[in-house]
Amino acid sequence: MSCPICGKVTDEKVRPFCSKRCADIDLAKWLGGDYRLPGEPATEEDFDEAEREERRNLPH
C-alpha cells in the first residue's frame, strides 16, 4: 500500500500514510474543505428539516 499523499510505502504506526507529516497534510485538507462529497450545497430548508428531525428524536 502506498501513501495517498506522497506515494511512499506506508508505516503501520500512521497507516495509511508513510509519516505523521503526510497524515497532518491530509487532516489539513479535510479541515480546509479540499475534500468534498459531490452534490448540491445544503439549503436553509435542509438545515431546518434536520433541526426538526433532531427535536423529534429527543427523549421527552
Automatic annotation (TrEMBL):
GO biological process: regulation of DNA-templated transcription
A Pfam family recorded for this sequence: YacG
InterPro entries (UniProt xref): DNA_gyrase_inhibitor_YacG, Znf_NHR/GATA
One Gene Ontology MF term: zinc ion binding
UniProtKB keywords: Metal-binding, Zinc
Cofactors: Zn(2+)
Positions that bind Zn(2+): C3, C6, C18, C22
The UniProt record lists the keyword DNA-binding: no
Positions of the UniProt region annotated as Disordered: 36-60
Acidic residues composition bias: residue spans: 42-51
Record text on cofactor binding: Binds 1 zinc ion.
Subunit structure: Interacts with GyrB.
Family note: Belongs to the DNA gyrase inhibitor YacG family.
Free-text function comment from the UniProt entry: Inhibits all the catalytic activities of DNA gyrase by preventing its interaction with DNA. Acts by binding directly to the C-terminal domain of GyrB, which probably disrupts DNA binding by the gyrase.
Stated name of the protein: DNA gyrase inhibitor YacG
Lineage: Bacteria, Pseudomonadati, Pseudomonadota, Alphaproteobacteria, Rhodobacterales
